Amino acid sequence: MFCSSYETDLGVGSVVTTEGAVVSVALPVPVGEAVRQAGLTPCPFSVLAARMLKCYFAGERVDFTPLPVLLDQFSPFRQQVLRMTRRLGYGEVCSYGQLAVRCGAPGGARAVGGALGANPLPVIIPCHRVVAANGMLTGFSAPGGITAKRRMLMMEGTEFIGMNSDSVRMVMNSNNEK
User: How far is C-alpha 23 from the chain's CA centre?
Assistant: First the structure.
């Protein structure tokens, strides 16, 4: 395992990888709170992933889909939820229920929420782009919680009415099929 840090205006984050797959992402936290993964050193792949994350938090539009990710620790359903979430494009949002339908589990919004709550790869698997059916921001367990989720969505151009995302933008493109 390898680890690289990335610095942003929000603080310092880190990414843990193997030589060829991303294992986990820590979102930026204020410098005094940042903790590097003990005993892990960088490798070229972790440096690349960290550079991409730094660019994302600098406001650049970054496509993380070419980065291989490691999801073997999850059940097949959770893997499917995470893979489907990964297909959400920059600035797109969808509801937990829409995502459940796309994963073949109509009525499984809570199960989708559970899978996303266990997401070890925020931003690379953009769980911040999944919102409640009414557009309300809910369920973001990464540091910064709902505030961080809202900040990332705003950075991606999502419009808000109070704390609700503009439901007009709640889509999953038809080219994002299973």
Answer: 13
C-beta of residue 25 within 8 angstroms of C-beta of residue 120 = yes
Side chain identity at residue 63, one-letter code: D
**pLDDT tens-digit map of 73-107:** 999 999 999 999 999 999 889 999 999 999 999 99
Strand spans (E) along 30-159: 94-95, 130-131
CA distance 33 to 62: 26
Q: 127 an active-site residue?
A: yes
Query: For residues 51 and 58, is the Cβ–Cβ distance under 8 A?
Result: no
| H-helix segments, the chain | 44-57, 76-86, 96-102, 109-117, 145-155
- Summarize pLDDT for 111-163 with one digit per residue, the tens: 999 999 999 999 999 999 999 988 888 878 887 888 888 899 999 988 776 65
Amino acid code (one letter) for 16: V
Q: Is 143 helix (H, G, I), strand (E, B) or coil?
A: coil
- Options 3, 94, 103, 127, the catalytic residue: 127
Q: Provide φ and ψ at 145, rounded to 5°.
A: 50, -140
Give the amino acid at 35: V
